[in-house]
Amino acid sequence: DSMLAMAENVSQDTHGKFEAGKGTFLLNGKPFVVKAAELHYPRIPQEYWEHRIKMSKALGMNTICLYTFWNAHEPKENQFDFTGQNNLREFIRLCQKNDMKVILRPGPYVCAEWEMGGLPWWLLKKKDIRLRENDPYFLERVDKFQKAVAAQVADLTIADGGPIIMVQVENEYGSYGEDKKYVSNIRDMLRKNFGDNVTLFQCDWSSNFEKNGLDDLIWTMNFGTGANIDDQFRRLKELRPESPLMCSEFWSGWFDKWGANHETRPAADMIAGIDEMLSKNISFSLYMTHGGTNWGHWAGANSPGYAPDVTSYDYDAPINEQGAPTPKYWELRKALEKYTDGKQFPVPASIKTIDIKPFAFSKVAPIFSNLPEPKSDVNIRTMEEYDQGFGSIIYQTTLPELANGGFLTVNDPHDYAQVFVDGKYIGTLDRRNGEKQLSLPPCKRGARLDIFVEAMGRINFGRAIKDFKGITDNVTVTEDRNGYHFTCELKNWKVYNIEDEYECYKSYSYAPIESVSPDSTGRLPRGVYVGTFNINKPADTFLSFEKWGKGLVYVNGHGIGRIWEIGPQQTLYVPGTWLKKGENEVLVFDIMGPKEAVSFGSKTPELDKLLVKKPLTHREPGQELDLEGSKPVVSSSLTPGNGWKEISFGTPATGRYVCLEAVNSHDGKDRAAIAEMYLLDNNNERISREPWVVMYADSEDVEGVNRSADKTFDLQESTYWSTKKKDKFPHFIVIDLGKEHTLTGLQCLPRMESNAPSAIKDIKVYVSSVPFKF
Ligand code: GLA
Questions:
Q1: For residues 481 and 315, what is the distance between their CA atoms, to the nearest angstrom?
Q2: What is the distance of C-alpha 222 from the center of its chain?
Q3: CA–CA dist 393, 647 (Å, integer)
Q4: Does the beta carbon of 110 lie inside 6 Å of ligand 1?
Q5: Residue 112: CB within 6 Å of ligand 1?
Q6: Which residue of 94, 593, 606, 680 has the lowest C-beta tally within 10 Å?
Q7: Which backbone phi and psi does 139 adopt, to 5 degrees?
């Protein structure tokens, strides 16, 4: 405690200075290694902010690194919110109170597996907006937001006696594009707002930071647990031999996606990385040190393809979602002790958890009997065009006569569309699987069609962040008349906007739960369910939703997140500070309908129970690729070691289907792995991977990990395709590029760990206009 008191005195310093010196950062003229804990205040209950800061300090950190989420701070145009969970200034004050420095990352784009990477959805009301570019409207809005942030905290920089030592310009722009003018504009805004003395930096990947690196900014690298650290800084050291080195995001774990395996990363690898960096005086921020929770509808999604993130942002971080230390925490704390002269701050007491006895829900409001007033529209439009940001939307019209049935095409369902004819459920189109079409039964002219679309998180990474919700283009119906197909576009819609708002759900008319019964599939009606439980002493708990379908949950009016039966997450974290003595209310909007309207609370989460129906691999049992008659367009060797490799085809090849054959590996073992790959066109440019689909992979390791072949184009250099341990070479993957291309070369990145484990040596590439046989 006396140490803490001392610490508080230290923070009274005024007019400090933080800058880049020769090979090191300097704090008030003295060498300083940044040991930052990444925490995101909106992801942590406000009442627990100081607990998490103290936990980070006790771990051995000296700085808190944080993002500001624009869409949380400006939920509606010009309505700024810096109160409660959004009280940025208060959070930074708490850091200062605990003598922690602060790195501020105000975006405007942040990625972070947060809805739209932090950008507000309402930007999409201007349909032709160019996000993260020099679009005048975009820049005007960014400028307003940046001014609002500065009004809160610009006086808290170290120059003014505050804790903020550095401010980040944009975020990993190299993974988005090449546009120094845009990045300069963001830099200039920050300089104007924070003054010329503020230390600004950019973060990117070692593979692409040169594209947008500005001469007057500090450059830092992002990479994950296990990466070859010397290799990560090699290029930076060549370009700027005297620059201080910093890993601005060292990934402690990874995020989970619905329908995929729970992600973990070994503590030993993380600690080895941190130990190596500190022994070389390399600064770091541990992303995440405590991940927290994607409350309400704030979880984002990744692309190519569409891979929505789960509610928990536990991240397999040293401090778990509930704020408790994990084994990783204790091991890391021990390792960091070396670098704090044996001085350590006490670990704060853990926050209490409770079990809650099973409770049944008592009331139900079926959604189809609680629809709002519809809007009428000739042509279908997106959610954003109806001024709706989140929730669900029902598009309703009538069908032409389909004497022999037919099929429905939805272009495109964002994100989960359930189709009904005359109130009867027909099927689902799940964007994760690229589904756009389903069969319709024979029906009479005038039959009612309902397409009930639930929006999940907007994509937060890559070019696809311009992610409209609802139905993005149109809907057609195709009639099958004895083998002849007639297609027409459906018009004249009624549109029901179901905003994700607690007050809205509460205003529905409820009936006793006894008034509903399960349908033939064993589910209760789609709708809103309300139940209560009683407790004596509020404490943290994890509510189970294993018996439910898919939707959103509120506890005492707090949006606590999304649920989906497929997992891997089956419980939601509920902080005790949002509970009260006596009766507590749970409200669930279940768009599929629960199997049983019951829940219970437990002291520990269930983040690792995948109940998925779709296989994670790309090969049917017994399938064998048959390359008979195909000749490789190139047969070559990749160089050993880390970093990007390139081979050129000699003569260009045209086709839509590409097969890679890995003949052997550099380490002589039976395993092949690829982190990322690109194909080059006639101008030696990378072709878009947006439409790519894996058609076949002979071997994929999905035993408790996510190493399927689609990881070769998931835009993440730290995730990879790996074959299973015992499967022998050669290994194959086949990709459908979506359309025909003329191809001239292949770029390929092995795993990031030292010596690039499982790196492919000899490789053959096949290109074909017709699908390969298997
Ligand atoms: C990048 C981004 C972060 C986050 C991580 C992955 O480094 O900058 O915002 O998305 O990836 O968790």
A1: 53
A2: 16
A3: 48
A4: yes
A5: yes
A6: 606
A7: -65, -35
Interval 316-347: pLDDT, tens: 999 999 999 999 999 999 999 999 877 899 99
What stretch of H or E contains 659?
A: strand 645-662
Helix boundaries (H) for 155-266: 180-194, 229-239
Domains of the chain: 2-339 (3.20.20.80), 356-366+508-602 (2.60.120.260), 372-499 (2.60.120.260), 634-768 (2.60.120)
Residue 663: left if φ>0, alpha if ψ -120 to 50, beta else—which one? alpha
Please check the confidence at residue 483 and state whether its pLDDT lies above 90: no
Question: What is the spatial distance between Cα 656 and Cα 648, in angstroms, rounded to a whole number?
Answer: 18
In the chain, the N- to C-terminal Cα span, in Å, equals 68
Q: Are 759 and 638 in contact (CB under 8 A)?
A: yes
Cβ neighbors of 646 (< 8 A, separation 6 or more) are 745, 746, 747, 748
Q: Which residues of 386-417 are buried (b: 16+ CB within 10 A; e: fewer)?
A: eebbbbbbbbbbbbeebeeebbbbbebbbbbb
pLDDT reading at 164 higher than 70: yes
User: Virtual CA dihedral for 265, 267, 269, 275, nearest 10 degrees?
Assistant: 140
Which atom of ligand 1 approaches the CA of 113 most closely?
A: 10
Q: Which residue of 111, 132, 309 sits with most ligand 1 atoms within 8 Å of its CB, as the best mutation to test the pocket?
A: 111
Ligand 1 neighbourhood includes 55 CB (under 6 angstroms): no
The answer to whether 447 touches 403, Cβ cutoff 8 Å, is: no
Q: Which residue has the tokens 């919110």?
A: 81
Q: What is the pTM of this model?
A: 0.95
What pLDDT was estimated at residue 584?
98
Give CA 527 to chain center in angstroms: 27
Mean pLDDT of the 289-302 span: 98
> Looking at this protein, which amino acid is placed at residue 483?
G
What pLDDT, on a 0 to 100 scale, did the predictor assign at position 104?
98
SS3 96: helix
Distance CA 164, CA 61 (A): 15
User: Ligand 1: which residue has its CA nearest to atom 9?
Assistant: 112
Closest-CA residue to 572 (of 560, 554, 580): 560
What amino acid positions are annotated as catalytic residues? 172, 249
> What pLDDT shows up at residue 481?
84
Residue 65 CB–ligand 1 contact under 6 Å = no
